[in-house]
C-alpha cells in the first residue's frame, strides 16, 4: 500500500482520494448507531447477575473507559484520516509488519467471536416466542443466512441498515417508556438502584459487570474507517465520536435503570432474554402477548443488524489481507456478478459455525459453557488488546503528523484509559481463563493462513484484483 498523503481539505478530492461528504451530524449518528448495537439485548441479564440492582453503574463505567479509548482513536484519525483503523495506527507507530498483522488478526478474531455470541443471543429470543428447534440449528441457519445476504449484496443498501438501526433503537425506547410509566405509577423502589447484592465488594462487582457490559460498548472503532470521508475531520471527528459514545452511554444507563426498577434482579439474571422480562411486566396498555412478540422481533432485528456488520467486516478483512499477499489468494476472489468476496464469506461462516458447534459439544460433554457469555468474553479480550495498542500508538506518535488543527487528547485521560483496558483484560482472563484457549484458537486460524500463504503462495494477486480491474463494489448493475 502506498503512503501518499491524504486530502484533508474540503475542496474537490484529488484522483484516488475519497470524497469528503460526511458532516459532523451524520458522523454523530453513525457512531451512535455503531455503539447502540445488540449487546445490551443479549447481555443485560448477565450484567445484572454480576452486580445487582446497581448494574447501571457497570454500563456507566464501561462507556467511560471506552470513551477514553475513543479519545485515542479521535487523535489518530485526525492525524491519519484513512480507512484502516487500528492496524494503520500500530503500523505508523512501530513500523513492524508482524505487529501490524497481529493487530489485524486480533480484530478479525474478535468479529468471529462477536458473531457467534450474537447468533446464540438471537436463538434465545427466537425461542421465547416460537417453538424452538435445536438452538444450535437456529444459530447455524442464522449465520448462513447472513452470509447469503452479504453474498447477494444487500448490505450495500444504506436504507436497509438505517431501518434496522431505527428498529433496534425503538426497542430501547420501549424499555425506557415502560420504566417511565412504572415510575409515574409510583411503583418504583429507587433503593434498588444502589443495591450491590452479589456478595462481592462494590468495586469487584462493578468490574465484573463492566467486563461483560463492555461487549455492548464496542463498535466505535469502526468510525475510524470513515475519517477520510469526513468534512473537516480535525473538528468534526472528535466531537462526533465522543458525543456519539456519550449519548449511547446515557441511553444504556437509562435502559439499565428502567429494567432494574421494573423487574427483580433475580428475574433479569435468570432470563435468557432479560429485556423481554421488562415487557412481560405488563406496564404498557397493550396485550402482553402481543408486546412480547413485537419486542422479540425487534430484538432479533437488532441482533441481525449488528451481526450483519460483523459478517461484512470479516469478509472484507480477509479480502484486503489477500490482496496484500498476507493470506492465500482465493480470499480475494469475488463473484463475477455479485462482486462479493465469496471465498472469504464461506470461510468466515465456517469459522463462526465451528465456534458454535464446539460450544455445543462442550456443553454435551458436561462442561456447561454459556456460549453467549464465553464468546462475548473472547471478543472483549481480543478488543481490549487492540484498544491498548491504539492508546500506546497514540502516545508514541505524539509530535508526529501534527498540525495546528490536529485534535490532541488529554494525556492523563489516555493513561487512565490504558490502565482501565489493562485492568479489564486482567480481570476477564483471571476469572475466565478458558477464554484464552478460545482466543488462541482463533488467532491460530489467522497464523495458519499466513503460513500457508508464505509457503505456497505465488506472491501475486489473483485475477480481478490487480490495479485497474474491478474489485468488490465496482461493476454492479
Give me the number of helical elements.
Answer: 16
Largest sheet: none
Principal-axis shape equals: globular
Structural class: mainly alpha
Looking at the structure, the CATH topology is: Amino acid/polyamine transporter I
Total number of β-strand segments? 0
Mean pLDDT value: 84
Q: What's the helix-strand series?
A: HHHHHHHHHHHHHHHH
Please identify the top-level CATH class: Mainly Alpha
Count the domains.
1
Distance between the termini: 28 Å
CATH architecture annotation: Up-down Bundle
Q: For the record, what is the CATH homologous superfamily label? A: Amino acid/polyamine transporter I
Helix content: 55-70%
Low-confidence stretches: 1-18, 460-470
Oligomer: single chain
> Radius of gyration, rounded?
22 Å
Amino acid at each position: 500500500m502506498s503512503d501518499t498523503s491524504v486530502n484533508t481539505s474540503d475542496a474537490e478530492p484529488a484522483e484516488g482520494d475519497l470524497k469528503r461528504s460526511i458532516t459532523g451530524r451524520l458522523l454523530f449518528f453513525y457512531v451512535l448507531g455503531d455503539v447502540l448495537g445488540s449487546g445490551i439485548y443479549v447481555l443485560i441479564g448477565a450484567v445484572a447477575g454480576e452486580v445487582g440492582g446497581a448494574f447501571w453503574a457497570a454500563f456507566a463505567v464501561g462507556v467511560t473507559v471506552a470513551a477514553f479509548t475513543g479519545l485515542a482513536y479521535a487523535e489518530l484519525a485526525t492525524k491519519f484520516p484513512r480507512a484502516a483503523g487500528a492496524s494503520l495506527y500500530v503500523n505508523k507507530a512501530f513500523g513492524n509488519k508482524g505487529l501490524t498483522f497481529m493487530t489485524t488478526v486480533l480484530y478479525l478474531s474478535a468479529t468471529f467471536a462477536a458473531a457467534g455470541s450474537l447468533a446464540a443471543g438471537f436463538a434465545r429470543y427466537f425461542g421465547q416466542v416460537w417453538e424452538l428447534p435445536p438452538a444450535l440449528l437456529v444459530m447455524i441457519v442464522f449465520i448462513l443466512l447472513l452470509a447469503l445476504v452479504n453474498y447477494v449484496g444487500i448490505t450495500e443498501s444504506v436504507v436497509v441498515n438505517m431501518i434496522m438501526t431505527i428498529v433496534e433503537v425503538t426497542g430501547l425506547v420501549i424499555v425506557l417508556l415502560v420504566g417511565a410509566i412504572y415510575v409515574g405509577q409510583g411503583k418504583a423502589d429507587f433503593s434498588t438502584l444502589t443495591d450491590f447484592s452479589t456478595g462481592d465488594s462494590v468495586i469487584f462487582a462493578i468490574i465484573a459487570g463492566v467486563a461483560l457490559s463492555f461487549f455492548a460498548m464496542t463498535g466505535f472503532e469502526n468510525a475510524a474507517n470513515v475519517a477520510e470521508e469526513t468534512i473537516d475531520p480535525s473538528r468534526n471527528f472528535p466531537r462526533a465520536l465522543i458525543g456519539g459514545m456519550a449519548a449511547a452511554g446515557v441511553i444504556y444507563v437509562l435502559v439499565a435503570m428502567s429494567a432494574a426498577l421494573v423487574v427483580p434482579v433475580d428475574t433479569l439474571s435468570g432470563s435468557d432474554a432479560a429485556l423481554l422480562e421488562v415487557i412481560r411486566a405488563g406496564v404498557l396498555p397493550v396485550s402482553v402477548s402481543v408486546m412480547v412478540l413485537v419486542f422479540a422481533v425487534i430484538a432479533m432485528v437488532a441482533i441481525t443488524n449488528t451481526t450483519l456488520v460483523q459478517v461484512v467486516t470479516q469478509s472484507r478483512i480477509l479480502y484486503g489481507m489477500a490482496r496484500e499477499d498476507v493470506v492465500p489468494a482465493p480470499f480475494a476472489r469475488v463473484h463475477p456478478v455479485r462482486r462479493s468476496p465469496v471465498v472469504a464469506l464461506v470461510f468466515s461462516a465456517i469459522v463462526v459455525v465451528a465456534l458454535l458447534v464446539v460450544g455445543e459439544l462442550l456443553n454435551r460433554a458436561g462442561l456447561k459453557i454459556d456460549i453467549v457469555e464465553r464468546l462475548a468474553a473472547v471478543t472483549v479480550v481480543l478488543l481490549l488488546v487492540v484498544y491498548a495498542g491504539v492508546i500506546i500508538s497514540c502516545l508514541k506518535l505524539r509530535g508526529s503528523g501534527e498540525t495546528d488543527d490536529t485534535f490532541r487528547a488529554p494525556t492523563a485521560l489516555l493513561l487512565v484509559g490504558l490502565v482501565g483496558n489493562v485492568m479489564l483484560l486482567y480481570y476477564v482472563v483471571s476469572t475466565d481463563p478458558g477464554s484464552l484457549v478460545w482466543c488462541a484458537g482463533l488467532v491460530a486460524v489467522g497464523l495458519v493462513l499466513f503460513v500457508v500463504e508464505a509457503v505456497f503462495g505465488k506472491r501475486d494477486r489473483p485475477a480481478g484484483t490487480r490495479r485497474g480491474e474491478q474489485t468488490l463494489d465496482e461493476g454492479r448493475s
